Amino acid sequence: MLTRAVWRPSWWVWVLGALAALGAAYKLDPKRLEGHGLLITPLAIVAGVLVLRWLWQRPPAATMCAGIALSIFSGAWSQIGLGGVPLDRGLILIVVMQFLLRAPGVEHAPSMRIRNVHLLMFVAAIYAVTSAIAAGSISNETALLGLIDQFGIVPFMLFVLAPSVFPGKRERDMLLVTLLGVGTYLGLTAVFESLGPHSLVFPKYILQVDEALPGERAGGPFQNSVAEGFATFSCAVAAVIAFMQWRGERRRWIAAGVVLVCLFGCFLTLERGVWLGALAGAALPALLTRSGRRWILPVALAGALALGGALVVSSSLSQKASARVTDERSVWDRENQISAGLRMLDERPLLGFGWGEYTNNSREYFRQASDYPMVGYSLNTYASLGKLLPLHELYLEYAVELGVVGALLWLAALLWGVGGAVFAAGPAELRPWKLGLLASLICLLVISLVNPDQAPFSVLLLWTWAGVALGLAPQRVRRPVLEVRGVRSATA
After folding, report:
1. DSSP code of 473?
2. Which residues, given as ranges, of the chain have pLDDT below 50?
3. Rounded Cα distance, 227 and 233, in Å
4. Distance of CA 103 to the CA centre of its chain
5. 3-state DSSP call for residue 77?
6. DSSP letters for 247-285
7. CA dihedral 397, 398, 402, 405 (to 10 degrees)
8. pTM of this structure
9. Looking at CB atoms within 10 Å, which of 44, 95, 286, 489 has the fewest?
């Protein structure tokens, strides 16, 4: 098995790391070292360093799975009560550093392979960072995190690492189990959040958000119904892969149950864009396979009957779904935003207004339409501004902020990276992953037509999945060279 030189830090390196973390805690928030914090904070730092040292020795697959799973709480750690400590980002950073610093945990992992698509992703990321610096939005926390999580800097890195992190069936099964667990949690949370009992919703900040916005759709830990919809759909796809690959009747029944829970949770988001994306994402891959074509009508009929039964049983759910289908406000929002975005693009088509600058510059480009009201700029009316709304069309948003050049770089990286992973040659065991990736990609492409940026979990999962489906590049085999009476020849 492949091995390489690794770095095993001495004990004093970990001690210095703990002292540095303690100093940083005091610098950033001195109150953490007052009262009970004088004991709790140092103990927490020591425990964290010990966990880090343990993870440093372990293969990265489990750490990566944990980081992806915990990213469903990204941005909500302070609401949970952990003081804003981003556990998901920390775990993902550990995996990246394991490969960069050659940790013992990656001693037997396949080496990273740099491909041409990785270079395109690097160029796209540099372009977006340059745009943020030029616009001054690099110092804005929201814009910076959007650049890192949503545009793709961290997801691009995971795409590079994923073939080495999940090279075999054991590691891929670990990812499947993780996604089934996440899907079960998200699906059940959507049910409890929408239909009750509310006492089973965890963490409780989800209910606090629902109380602030009564009657809104299920948003789960994301506090966003679009992210909840894409996440539950992708986890349902992972459960379908598990159902196809796993052996044993009990395990397959569990996978089938997760599919149903996730799809029902996807419906409970009451997002029409999510519904269309899920239907398109499920239909096209099914049409591409013989077994899928055989099952598509029975599954569609069973799903329609189950959904109809749920609407009949729950009058509140029926009323919410009917209200969403007939709601025109969100349509007016998007029409106004798209019109304003097109005017902005017409003014600065090549390089755009700068990363994260749509909301800062869009108001003067809104115009009163003749047949629908002026809405879509903020949560309140145009005259009385509330929270500024992003442009609910991702492609146009990137074109407005990054210009046609930046938008095409991002789209080319997405289609070449994720799309290329779908159609790349590979072993037969990766075919279900490729079909599942195609389903998630189509769903995301449709959702992006009518909704703004996705949550970190959605983009992380898509690019990690793409790296898994792409697999390892075949190694070049060097032919042995023989010397026969002074003549060098290569053997077949």
Report:
1. P
2. 1, 476-492
3. 10
4. 26
5. helix
6. -SHHHHHHHHHHHHHHHHHHHHT--HHHHHHHHHHHHHH
7. -130
8. 0.89
9. 489
